[in-house]
Amino acid sequence: MPASLQSRRPLLALAIATALAAPLAQAQDSPEARTLDAVSVVAERASTATKTDTPLTQTPQAISVVTSSLFTDRGAHNLQETLRYSAGVTADAWGLDTRSDGSTVRGLDPVQYLDGMRRSYGFSPMARTEVYGLERVEVLRGPSSVLYGAGATGGIINAMTKRPTFGDIGGEVGVQLGNFDRKQFQGDVGGVLNDAGTVAGRVVGVVRDAGMQTDFVDDDRIYIAPSISWRGERSNLTVLASYQRDQTASSQQFLPVAATLNAPVGRPRLDPSTFLGDPDFDKLDSRVYSVSALFDHAFNDSISLRASVRYLDGKTTFQELFPDSYSNPTNPFIDADGRVLARNAYGIKPDVRVLTSDTALQFDFATGAFQHLLLAGVDYNDYREESSSVDATATPIDIYAPVSGGVIVNGWNRLPTQRNTQIGVYVQNQIRWAERVSLVLGARRDHARSKTEGLPSQTDNATTYRAGLIGDIGAGFSPYISYSESFLPVTGQDLYGRAFKPMQGRQSEAGVKWQPARNMLVTASVYRITETNRQTNDPDNVLNVVQTGEIESKGVELEGQFSFANDLTLTAAYARNKAEVTKSNFAMEVGQRLNDTPQELSSLWVAKGFQLDDDARLRVGVGGRYVGNTQSLGYGGFIRTPSYTLVDALMEVQVTDWTMALNITNLSNKQYFAPCRNFGDCFSGNPRTVTGTISYRF
Fold this sequence. Notes:
It contains 4 helices and 41 strands. With 698 residues, it is mostly beta strands. It has a single domain (9-697), classed as Maltoporin, Chain A. Pfam families: Plug (PF07715), TonB_dep_Rec_b-barrel (PF00593).
């Protein structure tokens, strides 16, 4: 590790520890909650962990809530960037990558949800979530199949969209300008639509014309999301619709390790902006329509119904050329001078249709001294994909003077149709005693079926459980313990026709939540996660894959959020994770760190407002985030990617109804990789990004 980075890590960790402890006296002086004019930091409730509106201090599992005002202050442009300051989350796990919002939680993969319904299914290069259309993002860490069915071991990232509010018509319009030729117009308008005050509407829109760090790659988008809500005496209905069209390409060019991290002495590293594709071939064009209906009805004060359903239709054309660094990672060049690489062509056109629904009855009742919140529901997912792949060949390229010699497209080949369905029945009881102790118990039964055209269908059944206990012991302290499980069907069969078993996850967690005042929340947690049935190579047959792999992830997390009456906001987080391979047919990796997974993460964000006069206000903010080193181990050898520390900044001026903000992420424009792999490629990190926004509120 470079000396400069090594020296910064303890300083940032010390700053976080100080930040978490120092505000206590000030919090005691200002016990009353205060909503700041420009930013809301300390969330008190979340729905992702329990599917009910539950205070965080009554939720026996670690969960982070990032409000829109907070991630806007930090300059987030996409979903993964909203999580850069959340404990245990490697937000930019694959650096600057337009293909998906790739993040890891506690070293493992999460599943993305939108409004409580699943949005991502494996790797599908569908248009990424527009953050201007979000109210907040919730991260539930660890296995969570009891409420959500088939899901990865890392947890749930649940983005919540903006919805109509029952107030006077109003909103904002704004213009963004930034480096890489960023030009964006955005608007958010809504309010009550009738005299009775029972119908409200909202329209959120974005139009963007922009480039990216990577040469020849655009970042263009059209997004419009109208919504309407109706509220009655006991019923509420909200319909959310959206249309999104993205025109971009793969920002990751899979630059060879031999010309970046391990470039030989006397030869410069490739610039992260290097484009090794073909401007006439490379593209990632995606179009997504979706419509959702959210309904709730209270039969009486004790029984209520909640139902949600969404239909999504997405079409994508993804084409890219990438260098062949994999045949010989240490020396991938095909010429004597070490300049020219062969290239491979990849292309896929998925046509995706997804139907998702979730219906539950909620019972609120008491048995003696115990208050129960019982939830019983059924959810259903139906994912269908028709796709075709490209048959193309590409010419080699001089990576130090990249000019594409072209690509020959021979045609497109239809791929087998895929269909995955899942139906699950779940029950959960939140038992509250003496307004101090909460016990959460849950169980679920799932039936999942996958069908690939031309192959036998595969059916998986699973039962998962969860249990958690949290109690208020006074002075704002609420210690908790919990256990949760997950399962994820693995489609396909081994070489001998045996269906793969679902991957399974188990988590044990303990911690404490401390909320001495409503404007302050600190969470400390320790955990152990075991993931089994991981696919590994068959040592007896290189053409076969077996399931003997196991991963264990354990660690500690500390996260704090503070908001004070003198217009000071602060968040801090620290995580130490040890994710390692405990079983594998590849003997070299047993007992080793999980590839591409940092062991340490820390962050600190501080923002302060200053009243200039009656009509003008200044806000400034600065943040630092540290991501530890990663390693990659395989038959090609061992590679370690250095850690990095990045700084973000905010300056904002409000004058009456006008707001002018300047966001800078990666202030020093540090070049880094996240990560490099022994396969032979490196993932470039995010460069300095400068964004100026002028908004008018009405």
